[in-house]
Amino acid sequence: MEGAAEQATEQRDLSSEASIALVESREAIAVTEPVEELPLDLKAPELYINRELSHLQFNIRVLEQALDESHPLMERLMFLLIFSSNLDEFFEIRVAELMAQLKYGRESVGPDALHPQAVMNRIGEICNAQVERQYKILNETIFPQLENENIHFQRRRDWTDEQKEWIRVFFEEKVQPVVSPIGLDPSHPFPRLVNKSLNFIVELDGKDAFGRESGLAIIPAPRSLPRLIRLPDNLCDGGDNLIFLSSIIHEFADEMFPGMKVEGCYQFRITRNADLTFDSEEVEDLARTLRGELHSRKYGAAVRLEVDKRTPENLIRFLLREFSLDEAHTYRVDGPVNLTRMMALRDLVDCKHLCWKPFTPGMSGRYKQKNIFDVLRQKDQLLHHPFESFSPVVDLLRQAAKDPKVLAIKQTLYRTGVNSDIVDALVDAARSGKEVTVVIELRARFDEESNLQLASRLQEAGALVVYGVVDFKTHAKMMLVVRREEGKLVRYAHLGTGNYHSGTARLYTDYSYMTSDADVGEDVHKIFQQLTGMGKILRLKKLHNAPFTLHSRMIEMIEREARHGKHGHIIVKINGLTEPQLIRALYQASQKGVKIELIVRGMCRLRPGIEGISENISVRSIIGRFLEHTRVYYFGNKGKPDVLCSSADWMERNMLNRVETGFPLTGKLAERVKSDLDLYLADNSRSWMLHSDGSYTLNKPEEGEELISAQETLLSQFGS
């Protein structure tokens, strides 16, 4: 493995700090050494990258953005913090699952055949190295550059007397009244600490008022307190001056234990298993079951301990025993253990010049001047968010809510939020007497509580709310409006690749397709029938849906391109590629000479560039200002291409265990999507190429070649 990484280092010009860091990442993430002669058995484990390690590789690409000086400084900090947020979820879900497998003796292996313990070992090596890099970037690059921009994080040793006095008052009035220090003794056992909460372990000397002498205490930092506090300008020499809550607790820890001496105070944070599991056969009321499970998420089994690197080893060992963890799950960090909460910085300082320039999504005049139903009767519409506004989608629902000709509205909601324009329009429609049916996926991970509140709000307004199918998450993005026109019922449909959320529509790239096509409307109606009622699989005319036809249709279309041989062409843009049957089909098509270009943002189990197997396959990942979220499938078909957009990635869960939709585009809409794909394939500034060893390198323009960023190009075309 090391030899392969060294060879890769010699072959590539990696001169910048970011590139050097990338080489380290490649050494860490490579799963197997390149093999000269691989078997032609397409199920051979050597042909597959481990899912978890590929997921980590995506997080590393996110961290790399913190070193990219073409990004504004505040955005670089945000990428560094997003790395923390992503890693939190990785441990809460993926690592937790691996640890549970090992604990209960139910180990399972994927197509790569790596045993869970081997995967855990690699995860520990990679994460320790990358977390160390993260804090080094923060301390040695980001903080100094923020200092140069007059944004200061004041350390305790630098506090002036006036600042200390203000901080003391803040502690006495805002902190001390809500903090509950816990001395540890037989009647005060180690407390049950909340997932991802900031805590301190304190070494004490002396006896308390009751004569107890335990020597240790825990201070949980209340989540109601901000982690960053801005000092008043009149106490500072200029600029923006901030202090961490952890600094305040360190400074005044003595005052929480009167008469005792604090020998040491060290911050730590525990990450717990946050996945919700229940036996679907025993569920009678999904909403009630979820309400009962949500509380347990805060107190699942511990999976990771983060501690200040200055914490004495005896205290670390004590914490590990209390959380039933071992050294392999310990991360010693050089700075705050709760970096994600630093995202509040953007709202505490005047930093517009350090952020991306604001933009206004494009909006065609046709949506401003006409009734949207008139627009859709004339021709289908395709919007590319965030470059084009999400407003027409909201307007379709708003107009439907008020239009006396509209009889019924049906919609799926996955991640929307309780208070949104979409939900307001559905509430208005229900209150005005229209038949409103909403399929809410309660199990949208980490949005369960919000979705329960959303369901209650819609039910109170008179909408019919259902929760889909217990064993199959409803991930499809569909809206159906039924309108009476000239004595006939006409269906208007919206299908999308992203969520019905105005906020993420400005942050994620997604397609919205709106149509009055009768066949599409009928298909959407049938899918809603499957979700709200019971019955056999209904045959669809134009759409493909998981878990019934989408997967098999993808296999068929790949095999059709394989029959075209060297004249075949496949382009797929998705967020994840892990489903083994689809990967094997792509390998077989590559062996037939088909040109296969994959744009996979995150996890990818497929190994490109293997002679005799995947040398005709390229895989790239786009990481930029916006989160790439579109799912597009293009099949050349010898000049008669099929173009589909979808809510589904090429992963087992999407194809086999979720309700998803794939919708075809034709004519100019298909041509437009193909043009977008070509632009992404030409990107030489934000795209990363996957190599057969599981590593990635950043694409750069050749000498004299134009610099191309797909996102920036689209933003300049549509936004303002």
UniProtKB/TrEMBL annotation:
Record domain Polyphosphate kinase middle: where: 162-345
Catalytic activity, reaction form: [phosphate](n) + ATP = [phosphate](n+1) + ADP
Record domain Polyphosphate kinase N-terminal: where: 48-153
Cofactor(s) annotated in UniProt: Mg(2+)
UniProt function note: Catalyzes the reversible transfer of the terminal phosphate of ATP to form a long-chain polyphosphate (polyP).
Native source organism of the sequence: Amphritea pacifica
Domain Polyphosphate kinase C-terminal per the UniProt entry, residue ranges: 371-535, 543-711
Protein name from the UniProt record: Polyphosphate kinase
